[in-house]
Amino acid sequence: MANSSENKKPLQVLGPDEVVQRILQCVGRAKNGPAFTMIVGAGFSHPVIPTTKAMLELIPRWLWNAAALDAPLPETKVRGFWSEVKSSPLGAGLSIDEKTGQPDLSRGNAVTEAYQAVMSPQCTVGLNSHDL
């Protein structure tokens, strides 16, 4: 499925009360559905809350060895992880950089698309656990 700017809705700015109501409605509907992750901040809170892009770098490392996040992650693990993500329904449109084996995050919505694919219930190697 191609993402076209023609198909996108304009950005809607919501007030705090409406944001809370939408979150409550969404979480209420998904009691037995996929896990939700909400990233707040990544500006002032960046040292504490990683950006979505940083999370994409950390997720394969965490899944491989959560106890040693500072340890180097073998390139074969990175390539294998992102190859599996790409084979999932939401990952099919990801462009994988041949040199790094990671998603090419340089184009428009690539960070969002990669994050959605990793968090998708159809991605068997991603963070799709209801227990998180």
SSE inventory with pairings:
Elements: H1 16-29, H2 52-65, H3 75-86, H4 110-119
Helix pairs in contact: 2-4
Task: Name some characteristics of this structure.
132 residues; mainly alpha; 4 helices; 38% helix
Mean pLDDT, all residues: 76
The count of helical stretches stands at 4
As an assembly, this protein is single chain
Structural class: mainly alpha
Share in helix: 25-40%
Task: State Rg.
Answer: 16 Å
Question: What is the H/E order?
Answer: HHHH
> Which strand-content bin applies to the residues?
under 5%
Low-confidence stretches: 1-5
Q: What does this protein structure show overall?
A:
The chain has 132 residues and is mainly α. It has four helices and no strands. Helix 2 runs parallel beside helix 4. The radius of gyration is 16 Å and the shape is globular. Residues 1-5 have low confidence and may be disordered.
TL;DR?
With 132 residues, the chain is mostly helical.
